Amino acid sequence: MDAQSADDAPEIDELQRVGATALLEQGFDAVEGIEGPDGMAVEVVDHLVAVHPGGALLNIVTHAPTLEIAEEAVRALVEELLERTELLAEWTIEKCEVQLHPEFAQESLDDAAGPDTPPHRPRGTTPSTPRPAPDIPARPR
């Protein structure tokens, strides 16, 4: 996740970066879990904060039922953390994305019977299952 200081704000200096890091770390340390959409529990496992002159890169490791739920929950958490921290209240989220850990990706492939297994059908589409040919009696020649 990439959080940015206000567009019209000057670059933050080294002392301000140390302060922003401490504020963000303190906020994340206070969180054990997040309630995601529809009340789904999202566990915050770990976090990494790297503040730079224009904002911060945040890496939040979670356990969540789906990637979408993880992304929504983490975005909501960071938005609330920025809002509640007066010195960071003007910061915005520039980019938020979720990545599946390679171990879990491999586990998912193994569970799906390997990499050659076709992907699941997207919601709202109909399967394109071939229909059996009708029984037509052979014509005499």
Account of the 3D structure:
The chain is of the alpha+beta class and 141 residues long. The chain has a domain at 2-99. Helix content is 31%, strand content 22%. It has 3 helices and 5 strands; from the N terminus they run E-H-E-E-E-H-E-H. It has helices spanning 14-29, 67-84, 102-111, and strands at 2-4, 33-35, 41-52, 55-63, 92-95. Residues 121-141 have low confidence and may be disordered.
Q: What attributes characterize this protein structure?
A:
single chain, 141 residues, 3 helices, 22% strand, elongated, disordered C terminus
Spatial strand sequence of the major β-sheet: 2-3-4-1-5
- Would you count the extended β strands for me? 5
Mean pLDDT, as a whole number? 79
The termini sit apart by: 73 Å
How is the main sheet built?
5 strands, antiparallel
Structural class: alpha+beta
Task: Describe what is shown at a glance.
It contains 3 helices and 5 strands, in the order βαβββαβα.
What is the topological layout?
Elements (H helix, E strand, L loop, with lengths): L1 E3 L9 H16 L3 E3 L5 E12 L2 E9 L3 H18 L7 E4 L6 H10 L30
